[in-house]
Specification:
The chain has 322 residues and is of the alpha/beta class. It has two domains: 12-169 and 247-321, Rossmann fold (3-Layer(aba) Sandwich), CATH 3.40.50; 170-244, no CATH class. It contains eleven helices and eight strands. An eight-stranded mixed sheet has the order 1-2-4-3-5-6-7-8, sandwiched between helices.
Length: 322
């Protein structure tokens, strides 16, 4: 599918990738009164699903990024905007991200698609939505793309997907995040991840987790070697990244899917931009705005047209429904 020429044209302020990345987190103050439903997973764990319904026949299932949740500002912004356009939203909290630790020693990882599949099956069994769309941000986008590529026969209710700021090559993204310019971001991730990793060791003291290795994690390769790989049965961080990167699954996607990655996204390496895969798959629409940062895409301070990516999600949904 040919590349899409992006309409994203920010003001001068938001031509800074870092300002764009941080702005919504710091200054978006809206909230949402979700109605929570807890469902049981096949391995006797639980997932917390936060619904915001307006009586629509269309549902968006939104997946957050690493260490995010349904309360992440970009998720709340999307939910509120889609609700204003008469679309229901389910904000998925990955295991351990809803404010309560999950039951099992493992929680989530960037390629763990079975929980998304569990949620979709729950919706199909308990609701009568005519149209279901998947929206994923960053890690949630990688999970979404991988899920779509894994499923040879998707339910007919799933009409398409939109993914934003996706590290389609996990190793490349990990290397990019190790650069000095991303130090503030990776430190923020690691503070949360290390805290959770140590809590898991305390909860499961006889497990294979090594608390010293967890405490000494300075980057993603350290943490994934200490926690993710052993808990999910990967040989090491490289094995995990190789098997869970969504890029290799893109050729098999068979529903209309929009991927938006900003060219100035400091979280992404050059390998995270799947130009070749998009050009060879008629179902994969690839949009690469010059600016946008990581899950940013703000336009102007103090004006109403700050929701470019949210509106882009709506445009793609409406295009497919019509």
């Amino acid at each position: 599918m040919p590349l899409i020429t992006s309409t994203y044209k920010p003001s001068f302020l938001f031509k800074s990738a870092h300002i764009n990345t941080m702005y919504k987190t710091l200054f978006y103050n809206n909230s949402n009164q979700y109605k929570r439903t807890r469902i049981t997973t096949p391995d006797n764990d639980f997932l917390d699903l936060d619904f915001s319904k307006v009586g629509s026949e269309t549902l968006v299932i939104a997946s957050h990024g690493l260490e995010g949740s349904s309360t992440s500002k970009y998720i709340v912004s999307l939910v509120n905007y889609l609700n204003s356009q008469k679309i229901d939203v389910l904000a998925l909290n990955f295991r351990g991200c809803s404010g309560e630790d999950n039951n099992n020693i493992h929680s989530y990882n960037s390629g763990k698609t079975d929980d998304l599949n569990t949620v979709i099956n729950y919706i199909l069994e308990n609701y009568t939505y005519k149209n279901i769309f998947l929206v994923g941000y960053s890690m949630g986008g990688n999970i979404t793309l991988k899920y779509l590529g894994e499923q040879a026969n998707l339910p007919s209710e799933i009409k398409g997907a939109i993914t934003i700021s996706v590290p389609t090559d996990l190793e490349g993204s990990s290397n990019a995040l190790s650069h000095w310019q991303n130090k503030i971001y990776i430190q923020r991730f690691l503070i949360s991840l290390i805290k959770k990793g140590l809590a898991k060791h305390q909860k499961f003291p006889n497990s294979i987790l090594n608390p010293t290795a967890i405490k000494n994690s300075k980057n993603f390769i350290d943490f994934d070697n200490a926690v993710t790989a052993p808990l999910f049965g990967f040989k090491n961080a490289h094995d995990y990244w190789t098997k869970c990167s969504s890029k290799q699954f893109l050729p098999a996607i068979n529903v209309p899917t929009l991927l938006i990655n900003a060219l100035d996204d400091t979280f992404l390496s050059e390998s995270c931009f799947p130009f070749k895969e998009a050009s060879e798959n008629k179902n994969l629409y690839f949009e690469t705005p010059t600016y946008g940062g990581h899950v940013g895409f703000n336009t102007h301070v103090g004006k109403k047209d700050t929701l470019w990516s949210e509106n882009r999600v709506l445009e793609f949904i409406n295009h497919l429904i019509s």
